[in-house]
Each structure stands twice: as structure tokens, then as C-alpha cells.
């Protein structure tokens, strides 16, 4: 009987020892999994942060310095896709916003605050130039003026309208022709010609689309009005 009791005690001790070893390994395994999970999570997070590209306002290629407004704009594409104007990461005009149209599209912005004043578009194919002239004459000093064409913007554009736009700093408006693409940023009261302007002629030899030139895109930093 004693021999049998000793065997039972030994078996119980061995079972307890094996159970303790098993539990120890289970706890160690859980702890290792937790630590490894955290470690890999931190590595993946760091890699994601390191590889994620920096995004600047309006999708610019670089940030604008202090005291400047970031902008990006594009002319219309043929007679299908309307122009797009972005300022300080805010879309001012686009087809999605449903506030663009054939002709000359204009956004007026406060030169000090960068706040949108108003937008409008003027049909220079089937419309009248008089509303455009009235609109241009009413622009107040210090206002940033952003223009983008869509389809035809020149057929009804007369000398008076061209002169008013030239006074905003445009160098190309005098040469704007039928279905040319043109984008421009100027200002009321500007004393020099604006550096923000692109113009491409409608030419059968160079047109990207049948009857229309390629889309123009432009980005930059507009100095904020001081005082």
C-alpha cells in the first residue's frame, strides 16, 4: 500500500510540475505575442508616416511662405469639362460646384483676408459683353481677380472689356482669340503686369483636342495685401 501511495504522490507532483511549466509557457507566449504585436505595429506606423507624402494646400508642389495665399487653377477642357479654381484649399469654382460656364469664369477674392467675395461666368459666344463690363467696373481696389476660360471666351470680347482686364495686370488678354485657353490671376489697383498668366492659342496644328487646345494649369502663391 505504501508503495502504491508513493507512486500516486509522485504522479501528482509530476502532474503539478508539468501544469506549472505549461502555464508558464502559455503566459510567456502571450506576453511575447503582445510585445511583438506592439513592436510590429509601431514599425508599420513609423513606416507609414515616413512614406506618406506631404500634402500642401490646393495640392501645390510646395508650401507657400507666410503672408501668401496658395492657389491652383485649370482652364476648361474643350467644351466638356469646366475650369477649376482653388484658393487656400477651398474650391471656389468647378463643375462639381455647378458654378462655371462657357466663356470667362471669374472669382473675386478679398486681398487681405482671402475670403471669397463672389463668382460669375460670362458667355462670350452667345451672350452679351455688357454684363462682363459692368462686373469688371464694379470690382473694388485690393481685390484679387482669378479668371479661367471654358470653350470660347473671345468672340464677344470687345476693346473696352479687354482694356479693363489689362488694367488688372493681364498681358495676354489683347491677343485672346476664338477658343483660346487662358488662365490669369490679377488684382484691382495692381501697378505692374501679373506673373500669374498662361495663354495658349487655338491652332489646328497644335490642338490636343479636335477644335480646342490643351488644358492649362497653374499654381502659385499670391501675396496677401497689407495695410
Notable characteristics:
227 residues, alpha+beta, five-stranded antiparallel sheet, 3 helices
Structure description:
The chain is α+β, with helices and mostly antiparallel strands and 227 residues long. The protein is built from three helices and nine strands. The chain has helices at residues 2-51, 130-137, 159-166; strands spanning 68-74, 84-87, 90-93, 103-110, 116-122, 143-150, 181-187, 197-200, 217-223. A five-stranded antiparallel sheet has the order 5-4-6-7-8, with no helix packed on it. The chain has a four-stranded antiparallel sheet with strand order 3-2-1-9, with no helix packed on it. β2 and β3 (90-93) form a beta hairpin. α2 (130-137) runs parallel beside α3. The protein starts with a helix and ends with a strand.
Secondary-structure map with pairings?
Layout: H1 2-51, E1 68-74, E2 84-87, E3 90-93, E4 103-110, E5 116-122, H2 130-137, E6 143-150, H3 159-166, E7 181-187, E8 197-200, E9 217-223
Identify the quaternary structure here: single chain
Count of strand segments: 9
Instruction: Determine Rg (CA atoms, Å).
Output: 33 Å
Output mean pLDDT. Answer: 86
Low-confidence stretches: 30-34
**Class per helix and strand makeup:** alpha+beta
Gist of the model:
With 227 residues, the chain is an alpha+beta fold.
